[in-house]
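Propose amino acids for all 108 sites.
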C-alpha cells in the first residue's frame, strides 16, 4: 500500500480547518473538498458526544464513480475511511467510529 494510490493524499490545511471548524452549516449548502475532490456532506455528528463521526460522498467529475467517506474524530486525530465503489456509508461509519473510539480511549 502506497500513499500515491490514494485520491486523498493531497489534503490541504484549509480542508482540515473546514472539517473541524465551528461553521457546521456552510458545507451542507456549498459542499467541501478533500484532497481537492469536491464532496457532499451526508451527515455531520463530528461534535456530537458519543458519535464523533461525519459521512460524506465524493461528487462525480467527468463521469468517474463516487465514493462514500466516513470521518471519525478522536481527541487529537481524525480517522478517514473511504470505501470502494458500491460500499455503503454505514459500514464505513462503523469502522471510523470504532477506530476513533479506540484512539480516544488510548489518549489520542
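Proposal:
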Amino acid at each position: 500500500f502506497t500513499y500515491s494510490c490514494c485520491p486523498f493524499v493531497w489534503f490541504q490545511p484549509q480542508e482540515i480547518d473546514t472539517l473541524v471548524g465551528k461553521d457546521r452549516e456552510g458545507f451542507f449548502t456549498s459542499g467541501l473538498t478533500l484532497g481537492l475532490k469536491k464532496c457532499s456532506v451526508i451527515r455531520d455528528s463530528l461534535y456530537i458526544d458519543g458519535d464523533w463521526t461525519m459521512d460524506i460522498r465524493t461528487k462525480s467529475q467527468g463521469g468517474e464513480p463516487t465514493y462514500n467517506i466516513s470521518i471519525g474524530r478522536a481527541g487529537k486525530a481524525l480517522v478517514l475511511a473511504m470505501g470502494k465503489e458500491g460500499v455503503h456509508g454505514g459500514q464505513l461509519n462503523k469502522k471510523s467510529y470504532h477506530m476513533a473510539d479506540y484512539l480516544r480511549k488510548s489518549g489520542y
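The chain has three helices and five strands. Residues 37 and 58 are 7 Å apart (CA to CA).
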